Prior knowledge:
Order of helices and strands: HEEEHH
CATH superfamily: Nucleoid-associated protein YbaB-like domain
Helix content: 40-55%
Strand content: 15-25%
Distance between the termini: 33 Å
Number of helices: 3
Number of strands: 3
Radius of gyration: 18 Å
Shape: elongated
Largest sheet: 3 strands, antiparallel
Strand order of the largest sheet: 1-2-3
Amino acid sequence: xxxxxxxxxxxxxxxxxxxxALRVVAASPDGSVSATVNGAGTLIELEIVEGALRRSHxxxxxxxIVTAVTEARADADQRARGVLADVAPGLRLVEG
Length: 96
């Protein structure tokens, strides 16, 4: 029993490390913005291409940012679910 628990704990630590190292990038539909999030979905980098603010009204860039961040977070969430499903196959993850 102890060996099984140790193995499960080791798999959980490996999953934590994998999620901590995960970086997911998504771009806006027009390519003017790219967002990078970590395995927890936290925004760690936001890039706006040079000239994007000059080419359009500044209010137009907001929806591009939201889209890029939302897509990156959704992808990170899906990848995290995959990592956790490998560690705990019977675990039911709640959408959040």
